[in-house]
Amino acid sequence: MKLNHLNLTVTDVGEAREFLETYIGLRCAATRGDSFAALSDDDGLFLTLMEGKKVEYPGTFHVGFAQESEEKVDEINQRLKDDGFEVKSPGRFHGAWTFYLDAPGGFTIEVLGADDPQFPVGG
């Protein structure tokens, strides 16, 4: 069985979509008005966003976006800071160079460059 897609409920589909396109590099594959967007990448990820009035994910919930290098993690982190996002600097966590951010729309993302075989990047 293959995971086909992951759907996130977000408070603002357009804002979340723009963030994921700008900083993560996802591309919009389809939209339905302002309440739905489907995003994809070159590795087969298919992420859909649906609007919800109230979004509450558990404290440990997050969506991880692996990068090809620690330098790329640093680059994304600095772009976010330069653009006014409150984000901590990357650090070593679970064997990966990583940082977390509360993304627009009401969910948390992790950006990581993995060194640990548990978290293969691009493999």
From TrEMBL:
**Which CDD domains does the entry mention?**
VOC (cd06587)
Q: Which residues form the VOC domain?
A: 2-114
Q: Which residues cross the membrane?
A: none
Q: What residue range is the signal peptide?
A: none
User: Could you tell me which InterPro entries the record lists for this protein?
Assistant: Fosfomycin_Res_Enzymes, Glyas_Bleomycin-R_OHBP_Dase, Glyas_Fos-R_dOase_dom, VOC_core
Gene3D superfamilies membership: 2,3-Dihydroxybiphenyl 1,2-Dioxygenase, domain 1 (3.10.180.10)
Pfam families from the xrefs? Answer: Glyoxalase (PF00903)
> Which PANTHER family would you find in this protein's record?
LYASE, PUTATIVE-RELATED-RELATED, SLL5075 PROTEIN
Q: Any idea what this protein is called?
A: VOC family protein
Query: The organism's lineage?
Result: Bacteria, Bacillati, Actinomycetota, Rubrobacteria, Rubrobacterales
